Amino acid sequence: MSAQVLLEFSVVDAFYGRAQVLHGVSFSVRAGERVALLGRNGAGKTTVVNTFLGIAACRSGSLSVGGAPLPRPRHFDAARRGVSVVPQGRRILPNLTVRENLLLGAASGRVGPWNVERVFEMFPILRERAANPGTALSGGQQQMLAIGRALMSNPSLLVLDEPSEGLAPIVVDELGDTLNRLATEGTSVLLIEQNIGFVRQVAERAYLLSKGSVVAEGKLDDMAADSLREHVAV
User: Fold this and answer.
1) 3-class DSSP assignment, residue 226
2) Cβ atoms of residues 148 and 118 within 8 Å
3) Integer CA distances (angstroms), 146 to 5, 139, 158, in order
4) How many CB atoms lie within 10 A of CB 77?
5) Pairing mode, if any, of strands 34-38 and 205-210?
6) Among 21, 84, 167, 188, who pairs with 47 as Cys (CB 3.0-4.6 Å)?
């Protein structure tokens, strides 16, 4: 019996107003998988996230979240169905403490193993800085906070949009270790990235996005080197 499909796009055309950004995009992530969506800036990667969050409009095709069709996505539907997003730029709220930022992630009401204490166990520095403003943290610590906040919704699938952006290489390596640990503990991962080195550390297979269309898919090791050089930062 195949694993549950946690997120699936089937020939999706997505728009902002009249501007079409995604053209017939199809991909899926199943329970237990670590998948990457690769592409350069402007390829449409963030629009994939915005489509299942209801920010971009799906005008053709279909998508499912949490194993069920989602014909009219709203921003809170994904989290309630077990798909949690770590957004590009992290979006830490400046007027809230580290602890308060984490507690925002529990708003979906999903029951599961993740709570503030468990997040602190995974990221001890957040416990030390719990009463500090979230934006007083370093870039790497803010990424830990963004991941912890997403885990507070007890997701089946964690979607990370450009998580390596602006981070030092050693911090990126630590982030990869964290994502692999989460996957081992049962949280599937969709990594939306253009840093192929980081992706190779985490993902088992990938979809390559260019100009709003999927131009290749499969195991990373099987993808043509020329294609990767053309469409991502190798």
Assistant:
1) helix
2) no
3) 25, 10, 11
4) 17
5) parallel
6) 21
Cβ-contact 113, 187 below 8 angstroms: no
Residue showing tokens 């190779």? 200
pLDDT for the residue 233: 58
Determine how many CB atoms are found less than 10 A away from the CB of residue 131: 9
Categorize the per-residue pLDDT at 231 as very low, low, confident or very high, splitting at 50, 70 and 90.
Answer: confident
Q: What is the pLDDT of residues 181-219, one digit of tens each?
A: 999 999 999 999 989 889 999 999 999 999 999 999 999
Give, to the nearest 10 degrees, the angle between helix 169-184 and helix 139-151.
20
**Helix, strand, or coil (residue 138):** coil
pLDDT 10s digits, 162-171: 999 888 999 9
Tell me whether strands 5-16 and 19-30 are parallel, antiparallel or unpaired: antiparallel
